[in-house]
Specification:
Helices cover 30% and strands 26% of the residues. By secondary structure, it is α+β, with helices and mostly antiparallel strands. It starts with a helix and ends with a strand. The structure holds biotinyl-5-AMP (BT5). The site of biotinyl-5-AMP has 26 residues, from helix 5, strand 5, strand 8 and strand 9. Biotinyl-5-AMP is lined by residues 85-87, 109, 112-116, 118, 120-121, 129-131, 172, 180, 183-185, 201-203, 205, 217, 221.
Length: 318
């Protein structure tokens, strides 16, 4: 693939490719067929040879890893056209010993999951569904901080395309204005005092329009395409996301949660707002004061008491 990408005025003949790579011409043809299946637009003209036609970088593991400037996130990438859920696959891989930073990406999820058994709509082709395997040397109690630092990394990446309007709603929603563009699902395998591994699943709506989603969700979600009016490269988006993620993950492990918390607060839409938090059947109302050093949401209740919320779904009331 790298040879075909080198700039040329014409074609690479089958003979040139065969001698450069050191394989037979029949094998060159087999590789060309495989590359076409991977999404590359390759022109094959008898008597001239092969030429890579211009076009977007196809969405595959090779493209995601070429030019990915990370130390460990994405050093191993498992790419699938179709999966039940990238989190399920990543969880199985982690159980079987996959190393930290291993990535699972899919172009379509048949059973994408949100939190608490909810569904994550995962139509084929236009969106990003990815999971990152981590083995952080922290206590299970600290796992929720990884959701918050991931939210910062996702928000930063989206802001590259939409400079002002990206916000985080605690704990795991990324919004454009009031509409959800991305969600994060953090799952863990742990003992009382040790994390064996964590899988961080990230879904982002990219090159789709709202009408592809079920009607009841259309007014509450959006995509990069809806907001910018154009398609963006999913390869470029993912590379930026993995780089941003690795930077924040390292910052947290090396220097603690404080910097993450500061960045999170800059993206937050909640501070000072009246919110309702639903925790199963329990409803808590209050003014959101921010997040504490553990990543928990701090609420000021009408009674004047402050309480700490560690899990739940938030509605911002005004
Ligand atoms: C989340 O759950 O927001 C976590 C979503 C994580 C998805 C990723 S994709 C890769 C990885 N593999 C998986 O199987 N999952 C992860 P929650 O906070 O429970 O929000 C779910 C709610 O968001 C649903 O009940 C809908 O209201 C809404 N929703 C569903 N699909 C959506 C979409 N594509 N875009 C925006 N909102 C959506």
């Amino acid at each position: 693939m790298d040879i075909l990408k080198r700039p040329t005025n014409g074609y690479y003949s089958g003979q040139t490719l065969s001698t450069t790579i050191g394989i037979s011409r029949a094998a060159v043809w087999k590789h060309i067929c495989t590359l076409r299946k991977m999404g590359y637009n390759i022109d094959a003209t008898p008597s001239k040879g092969y030429r890579l036609l211009n076009g977007d970088r196809p969405f595959n593991a090779f493209e995601i890893s070429s030019g990915l400037r990370t130390a460990f996130v994405g050093k191993e990438i498992h790419f699938y056209k179709k999966l039940e859920s990238t989190n399920d696959t990543a969880f199985r891989m982690a159980k079987a010993g996959a190393s930290e930073g291993t990535i699972v990406v899919a172009d379509y999820q048949k059973a994408g999951r949100g939190r608490l058994g909810r569904k994550w709509e995962s139509p084929p082709g236009g969106n990003i569904y990815t999971s990152i395997i981590l083995r952080p040397p922290v206590l299970p109690h600290d796992a929720s901080k990884l959701t918050l630092l991931t939210a910062v990394a996702v928000s930063e990446t989206i802001r590259h395309y939409l400079p002002r309007s990206t916000f985080i709603k605690w704990p795991n929603d990324i919004l454009i204005g009031q509409k959800k563009i991305s969600g994060i699902l953090t799952e863990m395998d742990s003992e009382m005092d040790r994390i064996n591994f964590i899988v961080i699943g990230i879904g982002v709506n990219i090159n789709v329009t709202r009408d592809i989603f079920p009607e009841e969700l259309r007014s509450s979600l959006t995509s990069l395409k809806e907001e910018t009016g154009r398609d963006v490269s999913k390869v470029e988006f993912l590379q930026m996301l993995y780089m941003n993620f690795e930077r924040w993950y390292r910052s947290y492990l090396d220097s603690g949660f404080e910097h993450v918390r500061d960045a999170w607060r800059r993206f937050s839409i909640m501070e000072g707002k009246a919110v309702t938090v639903r925790q199963f059947d329990n409803i808590i109302k209050g003014i959101a004061l921010g997040i504490d050093e553990d990543g928990a949401l701090i609420l000021l209740k009408k009674s004047g008491d402050t309480i700490k919320v560690v899990a739940g779904d938030v509605v911002v009331r005004r």
